[in-house]
Amino acid sequence: IGNTVLHILVLQPNKTFACHMYSLILSYDRNKEGPGSLELISNNEGLTPFKLAGVEGNTVMFQYLMQKRKHNLWSFGPLTTVLYDLTEIDSWAEDQSFLELIVSTKKREARQILDLTPVKELVSLKWNMYGRPYFCFLALFYVLYMVCFTMCCVYRPLKPRTGNKTSSRDNTIYVQKMLQESYMTYEDELRLVGELITVIGAVVILVLEIPDILRVGAAKYFGQTILGGPFHIIVITYACMILVTMVMRLTSTTGEVVPMSFALVLGWCNVMYFARGFQMLGPFTIMIQKMIFGDLMRFCWLMAVVILGFASAFYIIFQTENPENLGQFYNYPMSLFTTFELFLTIIDGPANYDVDLPFMYSVVYFAFAIIATLLMLNLLIAMMGDTHWRVAHERDELWRAQVVATTVMLERKLPRCLWPRSGICGREYGLGDRWYLRVEDRVDPSKHKMMRYTEAFKAQDRDNYDKGLEKPEINRDIPYKKDLSALSLSRRTSRTSSHRGWEILRRNT
């Protein structure tokens, strides 16, 4: 019951009252430090009161709980060294990481905790010492891996075509080799090495990604932009396309160019994931993801309807015409592709001035140009501009959340020998087996001195003003002229005190 009340207090809007009641309940806790402490009992979602305060973005309760966990090590003048307890904060030995909970929640207030002590210092320590070097090395390794895969695709086994052309539009001159003919020369053996590296990399990607999907859940794993959800979809699809290409190569099945081309596009697009390691490029990946999966996905439904309608009209109009004179609409798939190019203004309207075109072509193309080019494309630009404006206001905050998510991901993937635990063991200071983060806080004495003089100056002005208001009330029987003289005297006194206060403030500055 006590633990349930603690969880309820974390969710209270009156944060000051919640903090006082929280302390009152803990004062009756018999197991304050043991495993049965009320603060260490989780709810049905596996969240302790401390983690719940982070997920809900309750910064007041979070700072209150952190003040209870800190230990002042020493203080010398303006310098103060504090040890912060990293229990439930550090993701090194946590199955449900506090940092991962913060960046995966949908509440923006929760990301403000990343700027508070000691979370800010812990993330900065992890990222600068281990996260950034490992992430840059991983980005370089992935680019080299994609270069290897691209070279294997460029020099894939092909042979000249021996059969006759089936139609005048048939333009194929090379065909795919059979498996027995693909690995015969020294160049083929070099390509085989690159293909083995590509397949091994695809298997490693699936081995690393599938456990996280099962642990977190597909909806949360692929749906969170900060966690890199869309990029996880891209890299898993890329790995599947590589395995499909391998099966088609081993079985000598024609058509391997389809999964191979998909894999090339997806693999190189996944390079944008590594832009999150740089402050200049990281926010732009967030903008691209929000535009693609927000604005563009909604816009594609409207675009598909328009293209389908006008492509059908164009195909019907040119169905009775000679395709050699105007072949952009000679069959229905080509009509869809040509209409898509016209929609994006990639090509101009097809025309042949040597022959007479149908009259309805001009009418339909005029309506298509008005609807597609002038209306819908400008609508898309306006939608993307609005998304860019919204994301630009929180770009730094989103980038810090990306850094935290990347740090937690690397800490889970890498072996313990490559990523030691951050902080100081409490045994060195007689604080038990818990781990602590040492933070040095510097207090500026001149700033506090200035604040004291400013407060004294304000208090003096308030006293003089109150005295000036009290004098007319006391001397009510005095004539009206005396009241005015008293008020003017109090104002002169106030101005003199104000001048004296400003002089003291200037000298100390």
UniProtKB/TrEMBL annotation:
GO terms for cellular component: plasma membrane. One of its GO terms (molecular function) is metal ion binding. It holds the Pfam family Ion_trans. The chain crosses the membrane at residues 134-158, 192-210, 231-251, 257-275, 296-318, 359-381. This is TRPV5 protein. Keywords: ANK repeat, Membrane, Metal-binding, Phosphoprotein, Repeat, Transmembrane, Transmembrane helix. NCBIfam families: trp. The lineage of its organism: Eukaryota, Metazoa, Chordata, Craniata, Vertebrata. Its main location: membrane.
